[in-house]
Each structure stands twice: as structure tokens, then as C-alpha cells.
Known about the structure:
heterodimer, A: mainly alpha, two-stranded antiparallel ribbon, 11 helices, 4 strands, about 70% helix, disordered C terminus, B: alpha/beta, 5-stranded parallel β-sheet, about 40% helix, elongated, disordered N terminus
Amino acid sequence: MNxxxxxLANGLILGAMYGLIAIGYTMVYGIVQLINFAHGEIFxxxxxxxxxxxxxxxxxxxxLYALPLMLVGAVLVAxxxxxxxxxxxxxxxxxxxxxxxxxxAIGLSIALQQAVWKWYPEGNKxxxxxxxxxxSFTILGATVQRGDVFVLIAAPLCMIALGxxxxxxxxxxxxxxxxxxxxxxxxxxxxxxxIIVLAFAIGAAFAGVAAVAYGLRTGEVQFRMGFIxxxxxxxxxxxxxxxxxxxxxxxxxxxxxxxxxxxxxxxxIPGMQQxxxxxxxDVWAFVLLILVLLLRPQGxxxxxxxxxx
Amino acid sequence: MLILTTAVTAGAxxxxxxxxxxxxxxxxxGSKTSVTIGLDAPITGxxxxxxxxxxxxxxxxxxxxxxxxxxxxxxxxxxxxxxKAQANVGQQNATKLAGDKDVLGIVGPLNSSVAQSMQxxxxxxxxxLISPANTTPDLTQGKDWKQNKRVRQFxxxxxxxxxxxVQGAFDGQFAWEKGKFKNAYVxxxxxxxGAGLAASFKAQFTKLGGKVVGSEHVNPEDRDFKAVxxxxxxxxxxxxxxxxxxxxxxxxxxxxxxxxxxxxxMGGDGMYSADYIKLNKKAQxxxxxxxxxxxxxxxxxxxxxxxxxxxxxxxxxxxYGGSTYDATWAVIQAVKKVVADNGxxxxxxxxxxxxxxxxxxxxxxxxxxxAFDRYGDTTNTMITAYQVDQGKWVARFSAEFKKFDxxxxx
Lengths: 309, 410
């Protein structure tokens, strides 16, 4: 049996999820040059938001009907936390040296994890997330779970919507202007504070969507889930070119596929037997990142949001 | 008084130099001496289901001893600490407990990796550490046990759970002989426990004639195993063995079946938890082994189960309830002997004497006969294979490994 189509499909699905989270890193960085290391936890609380909505619904409800409501719950919680983080943790530090907001972000990340661990009912263990019942589909020789279809539809839709928003709306253009030159944008009458909040909110909303995808895929949400995924998504953002929204998505997919292929095939390269398999996939993901940065320091599509469109 | 002189060094970073300056207890007329039994387990976090079962069962043993006056003139107290399944926290807990002169024994921990960080502290302070759940052979016999160079590592360390060497071999034997599986795919999480178990399974399974059609390592934090699933599917095994714990094993099993692998997943006691089934809608037919015999089937455990129920604990006793009760009871029995030998009073060097007494302890406990061999390992090699059926773990087969293994290991 040829496992290549299967590994490619796995990589694509995983990558779409990375990409959705990476958007948040890239947008915030493009506008305020801040790496929001708490973004992984914004994704995580989104997952718990969706779970909360599901638990509040009457039991036995069809997941297909519950899903839109869960999405709303995830996005709402993530956006609230994301915007609050900007308002109370990052805004007071806007003029401060680079290191201060970075350390704050790491502190916030730990605080959010611990808050869920302590205050969410049974938040100290993995909570079961609802999943679609029924068999998987076979597409071009790859098995795709019902739950994974969600991310395959959601990710392109989110990207198209974001692309249109940035290029076609006043707010989107204001965002590009702010990314290019915040001071001049301010002089031109753009409310840069509002734009920054908007960037945080959009990034958080996408993280919320990704969290629902994650829950449907693994069947659980837990307080630590944002840490590794956040790191991976950040890697994806850098890989694609930090500050570039299309780059974030591309970087996510490249990273996801690279991981899947590394798990599947590295050990079949003669002499690489011991460096193959699932244990080494993260290593290969970061090797790829280093290679890309050596050859193209600005990332795959390395340019700024502002110069696109 | 004793209580006034308890070391105030609790929580001091790693200054384990607070030697046990035990003075003789002044068990005055009719006054009771208080003996503390420390406990270390993951009371919160992902493994809390098991940890809470451990804490409650130890509490039960202590309460029973106090109720019946098991040791005349001595009241036992349990001091439970949470290690969050983290080695560094376990070490701090060991330091804290060892610093308290009233602590004559520590029950725990759950994880072998945590035990590695606690053993040294217990040894330096001469306090007995007795685990109901550690299964890594290295903890008692040293790292060269595979070459049959077995040397006792710590004179203060004991356990009432049998080792991974025995358990993994039992699993291999069971898969081959009872499961009639020919081809196995072996996955482990690279932790002390998981890797040891998987290696031992592999050795026994291939020795009997089984074929290992592939092996993989995953990261303990991973919850997305789709890439590994594709490889397993291509290898077409009839059994997948996983060395690791249920938080990862649950999603792994589900993703295997979702990805079209029909073979059941088998694992060790780290997988044997009610939460495994909760996190995994496709658990039906999976196997897990666990040390001992299901307490529900043991004549000797009837009283334990009834008492546990009567005590009204919120959480189940889970996999290690019985072995924890026995571990705690072993400490109590050791104290009993030490007090009896000293004319009804606690001697000055109680800690050392408790360790000596533990080496000779022998009684019929909840899980069977409790005694320790020259490495500190339990002499009880009873193991049970369970299978998931209708959302519950059902015991399928129990055996003393020594008798089950006809291949006859040295």
C-alpha cells in the first residue's frame, strides 16, 4: 500500500490548522512588531470556549447543528481574551523596549494556561471534545476523517475573507497603512489604536476556528495544547515570511507536509534510519526553518502585508 | 515535644542535609506517639485519576490502622503532597517530607521518572520510599539489569508493583499465546516507563516466534498521530503495542481505528484507566495489562472495596488502589514491628529500623502476599490482561508470570 497520498493529506490538514494560527502571529507582528507568544493560549481558550458551548447545549444534539454555535463560542472567547491581552498587557508597554512585551507575552501565556487548569471544571485533565460519528471518506487514496473536512473548508474560506478584507475595505487599507508607517497613518487620521485591536481580534478569531478544528481532529482539548501548536504556528509564520498573511498560510502547509513526510520517509533514506519517525518530526520541522532562513532570511513570501494586495 | 522540634526546613530548596537527628520519643503515660506517613502522587493534572485513587487508598489504610489500634500507642497521620507527575516537584516533596522527623515512610510516587528524582533524597535521609506503581526495573536493579547484572540501587526503596520487565514480557507472552497475534507494530513515547515496557514486550514476543513489523517513537505531548497511523496501516500488523500512558494512548487508539487500522491497541498499566475509554470512542477490543489481579476478583480485597465505598471517596481507587493500600500497610507493619521490638515505644533510630523491618515484612494484603526480594521488588508477579468491552475494562486473564512463561527465563 502506498502511504504517500495519506501522508500528504495528513500534512495538508495539519498545515491548514498551523496556518490559521499563524495568521495571528503574522498580523500582530506586521503592525506592532510584537511576537505575541501568548497566541497559542488564545487558541487554547478558544477550544475551551467551543467545548463550553457544547456542554451547555442539550445532550444528544446533532453536532452538525451545534458546530456553528460552537464556532461562535470559540471565536468569541478567543477574541475577548485576545483583545483584553492587547488592552491590558501590551498597550501599556507600547513605547517600552522590545524585551518588555516579549516577557509579558510569555508570562501571559503561563497565566492563561494555569487559569484554565485551575478554574475550568476538570480543566486539569484532557476534556473530551465532541466528534463526528460515522465513517471516514477516502479521497484519492487518502483516508480523511469527517472532522478534518471542517478545516479543509474553513481554512480557504478564512483566507479568502481575510484577503478581501485587507484589500477591499477601508479598515483593511487602514491596516496596510498602519503596517507601513504608523506615525504617518496617524497623521492621515487613521485611528491606529483601533487598527491594532482589530489585528489582535482577527488573529484571535482565526485561532478560535483552528481550535475547533483541533478539537474535532483529536477529540480532546487540554490546557497545554496551545504551547506546542503555538510554537509550530510561529515557526510557520516565520517560514512563510513574518508579516505576510499569505505567507503564514503557505508556511503552515509547508510545515505540516514536511512533518508528515519526515515521519513517513526520513527513515527510508539509507543511513538515516535512526533519525526517522514521529519522534524526530519536530526536529525536521525546525531544520527546514533554519534552511529556509539561511537561504531566504525574509521567509518564503517574505514581504510585508502592506506591500501586498 | 516532638511536634515542636519538627524541622522548619520544609520546602528548603535542595538542602537535604537535614540529617535525621531523631531523639527518643517521649511517649509519656497514656499519650500517643504520632507517626506520619508521607505520600507523593499526581493529585492534579492529567494523571490525577490514578493519583487520587492512590491518595484515598493510603488514607484508608491509615484510618483503618488508627481505628483498630493496629500499633498500640501510635497514631498514624497521612501527609499527601501533589507532584503533578513532574520529577522536580517530586524531589521537592521528598525533601519536604524527609525534613519532617515524624515521617517514617513515604508512599509513592506513581511515575518511575519521578521516583528517580526522589530515591536519592530518601536514601540520604534514611527514610523508606515505597511505591505502589513504579514499574521501571532500573529503579531497583540498576541500569544493567538487561545484561543480568542486577545490583540493588537504594536500600531504602521498595515497591509493591512488579516491574516492566515482567509486565512487558507478560504482554508479549499474552499477545502471542492467548491473543494468537503474529505480527506486532510497536510504538513507545520514549519515557523511562514506555520505552522499557515496549522493549520488554518486543523481546518476549520475538522470542516466542512473533514478528515485529515496524516500530515508531512518538513524543509524550503529541496528540496528533495521523502520520504514524499511515505507517502502521501500511505495515498491516494484527496487534499494535504502545508503551506509554493513557493521555496519549487514548487519542492514538482512536486515530488508528479512524485511519483504518483494524488491529487492537495493547499497552501496559499506564493505559489501564477509565479515562482511556473516555478519551477514545474506538476503545472497544483494546488490551491493557496491569500489575496484580483485579481487586474485584480477590477474596483478600473484599474488605478493602467495602471500606473504600463506606469511606465515601469521590474518586475511584483505579489501578493502584490495592497496591497503595498494601504499600501503606507495609509501612504500618514495619512500624508495628519496630515498636514491639523496642518495648512498645518508638526507638531513636526509628527510620533506619523501619527500613530494616520492611525488608522482612510479610503479610497477606489486598493484592496478595506482600513481601520484598533482595532488590526491594515485590515477590508478587501476578499480572492481569484486561480488554475494553462495552465501555469498561474487563479482566480476561491473570497469571503469575513465573508460571506463565514456559520459555523459562533465567
